[in-house]
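Cast an eye over this sequence plus tokens and walk me through the fold:

***
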Amino acid sequence: MPTSFKTENDFIQWNEEMAHRYDPEAYHLRSNFLIRWIERRRVKTILNFLDTQQQDRVLEIGCGAGNILEQIPAIRLHGIDLSSFLIKKSQRRLASHQGILAQSNAEQLPFATGTFHKLVCSEVLEHVANPRQVVGEIARVATSNAVIVISVPNEVWIDRVKTIIRKLGLGRWLLKGADDSYSSPDQMTDEWHLHSFDLTLLKEISDNILVIRQIKAIPFNFIPLRYVACCQLVKQA
């Protein structure tokens, strides 16, 4: 896992390589049945927290292949991703929607201050160089009463569960993909993630920027593999 990049282009090139190697579209659609079930629970929680109305202006930061964005029931959909490979996938998926997609770094969002009513950042912060700066940019482009939903992995628990699965000899059935064309990204945590996230780190990077109103552990409270947080802007004095 790289710890630093000499230039932004180095980071973009590395991220593009990771996007090809660990295609998020394949993760949503062709992972093992258990992983897909967990992902459906996570996405359902994101959509429930957003509670989007048709006229809301919505932004997904790190939209990937558009798997979540296409499920949001709003007219004015926007998405950004650093990967040109993934933006092309999103464009195809959202061809029948009025979506506006752009290749952009999440640390410098190409939008005016106070633009969006609903914002989602799903499993992205662990991949960026400066997650607190991304949270700051999300806050900047949000309206004062915006709903902001952030999803992050709980790395310690994910590693713990993977270890148990391997020790039980179940890795072939529970960590591999649904067909021979795709193998679930079992090593993604080591290679594509620049930060080891948990709830403590999410609260730390959000401090004095966002207020976390509600948190749901996915798939269950007693097996918190991922966290989905519903947030609002910190009110300025």
